[in-house]
Design brief:
With 358 residues, the chain is an alpha/beta fold. 20% of the residues lie in helices and 27% in strands. The protein contains 6 helices and 23 strands.
Length: 358
C-alpha cells in the first residue's frame, strides 16, 4: 500500500491525521472489568499487569541429557574418572548430595542434584559400568539452566493493555495463573443500508447486488475478539434507519454501517445521525474512503463507512480498528510504514492522501 500526502483538497474535509486525533481525543477505554479463567480470556485485554509469583525455571536444571558433576572435579588437562551414584529424571530428582569424585546421570529438564553445577553431555564421556571418564574440554556451569533464567519472581510478564493471544495463555498457564482481570468484551452492532442490497443466499432481483460489506465487516470485527451482532440490511428510508440506530444504541458500545453516507438523495445515514445523535465529522481528505461519518448515538459511538467495498475496508483499518482497540483498552499500536519503489507512475488529486493497492 503506497501513501501520498499533499496540501488542502476540500475546505470541509479533515486530513487523516486530524480525523484520527479527533477520534482518539473523543474515546476512552471501557471501565467494566471481569475476572475470568485464562481460557475464557483469550482475545480480551488485560486490565492490570501480571507479575510472576514463581521463578522460571523454578530450580537449576539440565539443558542436556548427560551427567551432573562438580565443577571442581573437571580436569584442567588429561582426564578424570567419576563414579555414578544415582540418576535424576525430569519429575523424579535425585535427592542425595553428590560428593567430590562422584556424578549423577541426568536427563533434560531434571533438577540438578545437590552439590553439582555442571552437565557433561552423554556424547562426551566414556562409561564402563558405574564409572565415567571425562576430558579437559569442559567448563564449569555448562549446560545448566539456572533458577529464574527466563523469569524471576515479581517480574512483569504481561502488561495492562495487552490483548491476550494463544502464546500469552500458554505463558500464564506456565506460571500457574488460573484467572486474570480483563476488560469486558466490546459489543458492536453493524448493518448495511441500501434497497439494492441482497443478502447472500437470497435470489437476486432486477437491480440488486449481493451485500459483501457485511461479510467483510463480520470477518474484520471477529478478528478483534469482540461480541458482534449483524442486523442485516436496513432499507433506505429515514424511518428504518432511525429505528435501527435506536435499537442498536440501547445495548451496544459502537454501531458500524456501510452505505448511505454520501450525498445521494436516498443516503439517509448521516442526516438521521444529525437528527437523533451527534456528527463529529463527515468527510476525510482521502481516496478511497472520503465519505466517512463519525459521531455518537446516545452512549454508542458511530462509524458510517462508505458503501464501496474497497473504501469500506480502507476506512475500517485506518479509523475503526484503532478506535475499537482504544475502547478495548489496548496499548496504542503504531503502524509500520515502509518506503518501496513503485513500478508504474501514479497520478493523484492535490490535497489528499491516496491509498493504492499494493
Amino acid at each position: 500500500m503506497k501513501i501520498h500526502t499533499c496540501d488542502d483538497y476540500e475546505p470541509n474535509s479533515l486530513t487523516v491525521e486530524e480525523a484520527l486525533q479527533r477520534i482518539e481525543q473523543d474515546l476512552q477505554a471501557i471501565d467494566e472489568e471481569q475476572q475470568l479463567p485464562i481460557r475464557s480470556a483469550l482475545g480480551l485485554v488485560l486490565a492490570e499487569d501480571i507479575l510472576s509469583k514463581i521463578h522460571v525455571p523454578p530450580y537449576d536444571n539440565s539443558a542436556m541429557d548427560g551427567y551432573a558433576v562438580l565443577g571442581a572435579d573437571l580436569p584442567t588437562n588429561g582426564q578424570a574418572q567419576l563414579k555414578m551414584v544415582g540418576t535424576s529424571f525430569a519429575g523424579q530428582p535425585y535427592n542425595e548430595t553428590v560428593q567430590a569424585g562422584e556424578c549423577a546421570r541426568i536427563f533434560t529438564g531434571a533438577v540438578m542434584p545437590t552439590g553439582t553445577d555442571t552437565v557433561i553431555m552423554q556424547e562426551h564421556i566414556e562409561r564402563q559400568d558405574d564409572l565415567i571418564t571425562i576430558g579437559a574440554e569442559h567448563k564449569k556451569g555448562q549446560h545448566v539452566r539456572p533458577v529464574g533464567e527466563d523469569i524471576t519472581i515479581g517480574q512483569v510478564v504481561l502488561k495492562a493493555g495487552k490483548q491476550l493471544l494463544p502464546a500469552d495463555i500458554g505463558l500464564l498457564s506456565s506460571l500457574g495463573v488460573p484467572e486474570v482481570k480483563v476488560k469486558r468484551r466490546l459489543r458492536i452492532a453493524f448493518f448495511s443500508t441500501g434497497d439494492e442490497l441482497c443478502s447472500v443466499g437470497e435470489v437476486l432481483q432486477a437491480g440488486q447486488i449481493y451485500d459483501s460489506n457485511r461479510y467483510t465487516l463480520h470477518g474484520m470485527l471477529t478478528r478483534l475478539g469482540i461480541d458482534i451482532i449483524d442486523m442485516g440490511v436496513v432499507r433506505d428510508t429515514p424511518e428504518e434507519v432511525e429505528k435501527a440506530f435506536l435499537s442498536a444504541a440501547r445495548s451496544h458500545d459502537a454501531i458500524i454501517t456501510s452505505g448511505g453516507v454520501s450525498v445521494g438523495d436516498a443516503d439517509y445515514v448521516t442526516d438521521t445521525l444529525r437528527r437523533i445523535g451527534q456528527v463529529n465529522f463527515w468527510k476525510i481528505a482521502m481516496k478511497p474512503g472520503k465519505p466517512l461519518t463519525y459521531g455518537k448515538i446516545q452512549n454508542a459511538i458511530f462509524f458510517g463507512l462508505p458503501g464501496n467495498p474497497v473504501s469500506a475496508m480502507v476506512t475500517f483499518y485506518q479509523f475503526v480498528q484503532p478506535a475499537l482497540r482504544r475502547m478495548m483498552g489496548q496499548t496504542k499500536r503504531i503502524p509500520i510504514r515502509l518506503t518501496v519503489p513503485c513500478l508504474s507512475r501514479l497520478k493523484k488529486h492535490p490535497g489528499r492522501i491516496e491509498f493504492q493497492r499494493g
